[in-house]
Specification:
- With 137 residues, the chain is mainly alpha-helical.
- It is built from 7 helices and no strands.
- α2 packs parallel to α4 (62-82) and α3 runs antiparallel to α4 (62-82).
Length: 137
């Protein structure tokens, strides 16, 4: 049997990934979702709430998102195994927790830098430039 060239298969996969994104990222996402499904109900509920938040304010890049969600699954699997209470994981302010969590990833650094740039621009526009050094020199 002549197997022929794999070129049509590779080309099809390239076109498919242009439309849907990298297939490896989708595989990682499905694995993450399977891990979350295995968590005890209260941990799963917390992860799903955090996941919804991150879908709006987290990374848009597939590879960064996959890494972040895998780390999230690691955190909650370990917390469930140790019996760590949900409130102890998140602290009193869940938004503060998620903002600190996101800062560990490229998008978090980007968001922080853009927030600082935005705040600085508004300060300058209001005549309240508080920078320690003059960068225009």
């Amino acid at each position: 049997m002549d197997t022929g060239s794999n070129e049509p298969k590779r080309r099809y996969r390239q076109y498919l990934e242009v439309v849907t994104g990298p297939l490896e990222d989708k595989k990682r996402w499905r694995q993450y979702k399977a891990r979350v499904k295995q968590l005890p109900e209260n941990y799963r509920t917390a992860v799903e709430a955090l996941e919804r938040y991150l879908m709006h304010f987290g990374p848009g890049d597939g590879a960064d998102a996959a890494s972040m969600f895998e780390d999230l699954a690691d955190l909650f699997e370990q917390s469930a195994a140790d019996g760590t209470p949900i409130r102890e994981i998140f602290g009193e302010d869940p938004v503060e927790f998620v903002e600190a969590f996101v800062q560990n990833y490229a998008v978090g650094r980007y968001i922080r830098r853009e927030r600082e740039r935005f705040t600085s621009a508004i300060d300058r526009a209001a005549g309240e430039d508080t920078r320690k050094e003059d960068r225009s020199v």
